[in-house]
Design a protein that fits this description.
The structure is a single chain. The chain is an all-alpha fold. 76% of the residues lie in helices and 1% in strands. The chain is built from 27 helices and 2 strands. It starts with a helix and ends with a strand.
Length: 540
Amino acid sequence: MLFFLIQEHVFASESVSNSLDAGQYSILSILPPLIAIILALITHEAHLALFLGIWLGSAMVVHHPVVGLTHALDTYIVQSVTDHGHASILIFTMAFGGLIGVISANGGMAGAVHTAARYATSNRRSQLATTLMGFVIFFDDYANTLLVGNMMRPFTDRVKISREKLSYLVDSTASPVASLAFISSWSVFQMSLLESPYKQFGISVNPYLTFLQSIPFSFYCILTLVFIIINVLLKREYGPMLEAENRVVLTGKVLADNAKPLSDPSLIKENNIISSHWSNAFIPIGVVVAVTIGGLMVTGLNNVTMENPGLQDIVGAADPYASLIWAACFSSMIAVGISVFRGLLSLEKALEAWISGVRSMVLACIILVLAWTIGSVCKDLHTAEYLVSISSNVLTPNMLPFITFVTAAAISFSIGSAWATMSILVPVVVPMALHLMNMDPNSVVESPIFLATFSSVLSGAVFGDHCSPISDTTILSSTASASDHIDHVKTQMPYALTVGLLAMILGCLGVGYGVPVSVILITGSVILFIIIRYMGQPVS
């Protein structure tokens, strides 16, 4: 009923209709994502909440509730599925689920758990191992999330770590690590966004150099990693995460009673096989990493046009989607081959296990498609442009990093995509900074305020992603960890807000008014230690 009342109000407003037709930006453009997010948090039915948000947004675009429903089904959702990048991620996610199904059924996963149990003998050690794996797989956030979550889940279940905590560790290392890495899909994407404005203003500084110089100014990403390390070492929690960790320690339940995990490990048939050698799991997983990196090199070399390209040029010209698909599919073939030739599974049982693994990812893929779709709806409603327009009137050079961070966080939270946020904001923010600072462009791009502003787009986008239930990386983290998605968002949000507010106030405002970066990072780390030590409580 509320949905139709809102629609009736929207369609009754002639001024809203006119403003949308005229391409102007309306406050009502934030309604679809806002309603989807609120309903998801209240009802725990993320797929239903997302679909209602899509329906409302589509109806606002076409100015009719019934036509809006059909338009959402036959246009928006179809476009989300047929988009090359989206389709690639869906194939990678399902094929990776198939891989996990095979290495679970052939006993390799259980063997890896038993082998690692000698070292990951405690709750703290298992959390440290999860964090370390998140640091090691730096080249892509999607690969990081699915690898770490699926590989570490048996270990963390064994030592009574809640699925909420596992999904937090996975989610909050994947994007920050990938965005800070010298070479990764994120770093190349960020660098590529600078090329057009740099040409426009005749800037001779290499965009890759700008990215490298901007890394220390990524306050949210850096302080998030610091927060995780302190949190794991002190083993203190607060907010909903404390409740989740106390639950698993006291009752042994890694999931809440009403939880609805996005992936269902029970669909993965293990056929009562005793654990086999750990290499039956780690060889296929190693193939994922090797083929992904090799695929980036091969596609990059094939696509690069310059002579004597550097590593960043090769990765910049690479096709990460093709690399991920190759990695998931080749590793699945290797896993099936190992299972058959080592006599662990018959070919029929191995293929059944692969299909069961694919099936376990179906709900996650549905949520991903709906999240991408509501992002498309927000694009047509100019949600991001509206949020940019309301912040552009209060910009000064000193406030530029702060306002940029807030705007990026709001856009990313609303549309659920850090990459889309960066692609929207960087072409707007870079010329804005060059005009506001009124200096030689080549000098501006090496100034702390510009570097902090550029990094604030990235950090703010990651912060918004971490808080948003419609974010693709947040959804994948819940999927890989087999966690209830809304429980993951609720437990992660207080931690993300803690670091986000500190990054905003101490980091973005501080650098805007001349505080050295080293002082900001050291002070921020000390403050995080104090917060966790005195606000957090030891798990029961």
